[in-house]
Amino acid sequence: MAILNTADIHPRLVHGLAVYDLGHGVGQEETVLVMPQPTAGDDKGDDKGDDKGDDKQPTLSSLTLILVRLGKRVLTFDPPFANPAQMATCALACLDACGATNPVTVVAQEEAVAHALIFAHEHGDRVKRVVLAGEPGRMPPGRSLDEITIPVLIYVGERALQALDRATSLATQLPNAQLVICPQGGPHPHEDAPLHFGAALRAFLDPDTSRPGTVISVEL
After folding, report:
1. Which structural domain range is residue 111 located in?
2. pTM of the entire predicted model
3. What does the buried/exposed string (b/e) look like for 130-141 if buried means 16 or more CB atoms within 10 Å of the residue's CB?
4. What averages of pLDDT result for each successive group of 10 residues across the chain (220 residues)?
5. CATH number where 196 lies
6. How confident is the model over 156-212, as pLDDT tens digits?
7. Rounded CA gap, 10 and 2, in Å?
8. Distances 62 to 50, 69, 116, 148, 180 between C-alpha atoms, Å
9. Which residues touch 2 (CB under 8 Å, ≥6 apart)?
């Protein structure tokens, strides 16, 4: 999986949370929050040495890389170790630390999808819309999706049959969802067809200004 070059990554610690603010420049006014994948626990348990997170090699998802190269200002953070329940708190801290006071677009994939939707439900004043890429993870039981009325883009590959089934089911549960199927796309369609993903994303974010045939530059 492609990662951002470490020379391009400038994290800062905010109360122990590593926060990333990437993609500043002309034409990059659109701000998106990438909800990171929850970190699974291991046999090290609750390691107090994790406070030195700035000593670790930062690794960000290819989704983050693509969004930066599509001209977005991308905010994200290192997820709390083995404690996904804190994801919403960390997301708020990331937005506040980066001065993102206006509602933003939240982007997620796989297991982070549930956290993105929960965040949109619980903190609707901070979320303008949601973009879900690839196979959606499972939603926690007892969560109702019909109260999430903001626009949601679900981008899924046609060759990933299980992902397509889940995405289709998810789209029927969300009142304002738009399902876009990537031709010949697999479990990570944004990687398989970044130009197609970019066009779908821009049409979703800026429907009034998006024009068919406009060139999008994505160097992977």
Report:
1. 6-39+54-205
2. 0.82
3. bbbbbbbbebee
4. 52 88 68 86 41 47 85 89 82 94 94 92 95 84 84 94 91 94 91 91 76 41
5. 3.40.50.1820
6. 999 989 889 999 999 999 999 999 999 988 999 999 998 999 999 989 987 765 444
7. 18
8. 24, 11, 17, 27, 19
9. 62, 65, 191, 220
Report helix, strand or coil for 46.
coil
CA distances from 67 to 31, 32, 35, 102, 148 (A): 10, 8, 13, 19, 24
**Within a domain: residue 11?**
yes
Going across the sheet that includes 177-182, the strands are: 12-14, 17-22, 73-77, 31-34, 104-110, 127-136, 152-157, 177-182
Spatial separation of the C-alpha atoms in residues 102 and 109, rounded to whole Å? 23
